[in-house]
What does this fold into?
Amino acid sequence: MIDLFRRLPLSAKLILIGLIPSIFLVCLSVEFYTFEKQKYKLSIENIKVVDRSSIVNRLIDRLQEERRFAFEYALKKDGYAQMLEQQRLTDTVIGNIENDPDLKGFEKYTMLDSLQSIRKQSSAHKLSTGQVMNFYTTAIFRISMLEVTPQLQLANAGLLNRELHSARALSQMITYLGILRSNIYNVLYTRQFKYGNGTLLGLLGVYEVFSTYQVEFKAKSPEKTLASYNLIMQRPAKPTIDYLVKSFKTMQFDSTSFTDEQWLSVSGIAVEQLRGLQANIWSTIDQQLIRVRDNIHRSQNILLLLLLLGLGLSVGIITLTIISITKTLTELRIAAEKIAVGETGLTLSIASNDVIGKLANAVLFIDKNNQMLTHAANEIRMGNFDIALTPRGSSDMLGNSLLQMKNELQHNTREKIEQAAELRRLLAAVRESENHFRQIADQTPFMIWQFDKRGKAMYVNKQWVDFTGLTVEESLGSGWTRALHPDGMKEAGFVKHFASLKSFRTRTRFKNRQNQYRWILVQADPIFNDGVFEGFIGSLTDITDQIAAQEALIELMNKKDEFLSIASHELKTPLTSIKGYTQMLKKNMDETDKSYPIAGKTLFHVDKLEKLVNDLLDVSRINSGQMIYKDEIFDFRQLLEESVEDFMNISAKHKIIVQSNADAQIKGDRMRIEQVLNNLINNAAKYSPDADTVVINSQVKDGQLVVSIQDFGIGVDQKDKGSLFKKFYRTQKDLYKFQGLGLGLFISGEIIERHTGSIWVESEKGKGSTFYFMLPLA
Ligand code: ADP
It folds into this structure.
């Protein structure tokens, strides 16, 4: 519910806020008005009762008069016209009462329905004075029952109520005085004094009732009325009252004071006077009632007017409040939206000093501050760091940040200016160095390129232009490929090399200005700046002539191999014959024979020659792939022992120490492995002329046989290590110092390779060498 209310737009909320009290107010006003109207209605009803009381009183009056005339007519048969006149007056009042809806049908229960027949009988003298008196008195009694003493429930109605009381009491007094008067007149007229005491006794009750009404009248009447009453009692009514007092005191009729006519006249005056007073009281009451009624109507109208006015005013004020709040908030919303999109220079027409006014002032303050910050930011942008920028306080994040930014910007700008100057200096230096580079690059004998990271040429030197005939502009970007052979891209593997970001070396064909394709060696290195790849710089060298020379050389080498192959084959047969014959000669000679040592030396050199020829034959077999290997399993331990023994037999100088000889079975060509072993042992002795030992180790490691032959001779240069196992390779220094063709290690390498093994050397120049080979176990 609360959520729903919160989601309502403000205008709806304000309307609700205004509407609910307004409805409440309207309901309250209607309720109040109805209540008041009810109250007035009650008052009017009250007044009506008073009115009714007045009219009933008047009827009683009229009937009393009529009773007097009817009584007199019955008594004296006189005054018929007066009686008729009085009857007419009575009827007028009866007519008035009949108009009152609340008293409809009153004739029935007041016996007035018999009035017309009584009048008729009375006119025809068919009724006695007693019957006349009886009818009228009973009727008057009944009618007086209709009358209630009205009480006005109104403010300031005290006097009026007292008048009403006095009117009622006076009316009763007049009624009872009338009864007393008629009865006394009857006694005086008929002169039946002897029954007088009985009559007085009968009338005593009436007199006492009269007296109690008199007491009530005196107690309740307002002063003015009482004063008028007292005046009547002291003067015109005095003889009547005195007569009555005296009669009921002595309980004797005084037939001397008044004759019947005198009594009628004197008591008539008293009754008339009292009636006059009664009329005055009623007239006062009437006047006051008119005033009260007017007042009620006026105050009712005023109340209605006030209610309408109050309601209108409330609704007006609420509407005005809603409109003004909505308008103000709309202004504030627009202002806030402007601030939100970064506008400045707002105007707000809010004058109140309430929470909204303060909010508006806060918004204006934000705007003012924004203007100040904008102005400051503009000035700072234009480089004016002297502009005042004062944050609103320590919690003003934006202001403080801007101030900090300004200070840092000022600092940075200063640094930047210095850096720019430095940069300019550096740039000049770079330009100079670039010029320098270009001059150098243009003077180098080879072509130079520079490529950016996307593989686009950024620079080519003069040699490129001279070679290709393309201008610098034509060559830049992808233009250089115009000089490239159609297969050049693939041939050189440019794409792959560029992607590798590593130095590369390749060759391909480029077209020269004579439209001839030339072989070019391309060497390039990547350029990195702070670890970021920026491209390649490379050189291009025309190697067409070199290639041609290499090809010629290869051809020559092939021819050499061919020659050696033929020569060694051709040499082999005579050499075998020479060796056979020399052995035979030596065998047939006596040891004392002079030629015996010569035959021995001849055999020694023939052996060396045979070894040379065998090596040459092996090389030609290797070259032609005709080397044949046997595949057998042999005991390497035994092979090593035999080889060492054979060597020891011929070598006088070097001693071979076998530190370890592993028990290993090898699968392969025993003779060829022996050839490798002999070659390495011979080399160890040959290249250690100043030493006398060779150390051999044969061990099994990780399922492999590892054999090492260590000497303490001249050692191998680091640069030569990689080439020792090449065909005909001999180190420069050993070329003439030690005999040999440079084939032993080449052949050994080939044999070990064919046995899926490996061969290598570890050596330190001047300290000796260790040759290793490794073979898989069988
Ligand atoms: P060569 O017949 O010349 O000895 P090799 O192929 O056996 O031919 O040897 C090639 C070259 O390796 C030799 O000329 C020599 O310079 C070098 N060399 C071979 N063995 C040794 C060694 N034990 N100590 C030093 N240098 C050696």
